[in-house]
Amino acid sequence: MAATSNGSQVSYEELRVGRHAVRVSIEGVEFDTVPLLMCHGVGAGPNLWGDFRSQLRRTTVALEVEGGHLGRRPTLQKYAHLLADVLAELDMARVDILGLSWGGMAAQEFTRDYSRHVRRLILAGTSTGFLGLPASPGSYRFLLTPSRKKDNLPQLAARFYAGDFVDDADLAERLGLVRPIDAGLYRRQLAACVGWTSVPWLRRINQPTLVMHGSDDPVCPYANARLLATLLPKGELMRFEKGGHLFLLSRPGESAAAVNEFLDR
User: Fold this and answer.
1) pTM over 0.90, yes/no
2) CA proximity to 110, closest of 118, 102, 101
């Protein structure tokens, strides 16, 4: 068990779920709140949530994604099934769920497939899949390449992270985004999204949903947030001016306050 910067405790559990080994990170112990399941973006891990996670006023759960978790032929449906099994192992019958980027698509899939287990949904910097507005042409190279090295930080800041990262040259490194990435896992996560879209069934998701998005997101343009909020029956849109793709991490206080307010209603 380790302590975060605000003194909350982080524990790690090694679970055996079917034939899969799953490493789960649990932060905070709030018995009077619904736990929050956090699904991170492609190539990321629980450790990258940083200060944003530590400012959430509830128990949070995040997983280390491994290639086998996505199935022999990677799909978001298989990953959603794994998430359900993990929550059953943790004896968490009902959760709120937050998904960032790739994790936002996984969160949509989980909410559709396991609706009875979801109280509220938060979608950040994500889209409806292939029927959404694609990344800008200059962002595709960085989206498809699992390279997050210091020597290409200026290009990453301008064409991938954007927003606050453009004005602060060292921000990505301080947040731990300069790191080695498992190329095989990265490509399997991208493969799980091929052909996937939530457009045909989003209107059947009745959970209150907060759609959060940065106005300066070249990977997932802001129009995707408007589409999500329009299709979701109880969708609520929150725009972060000049926020980039990872505004949750670059603006942890503002983002966590919005999430806390939404979940505490």
Assistant:
1) yes
2) 118
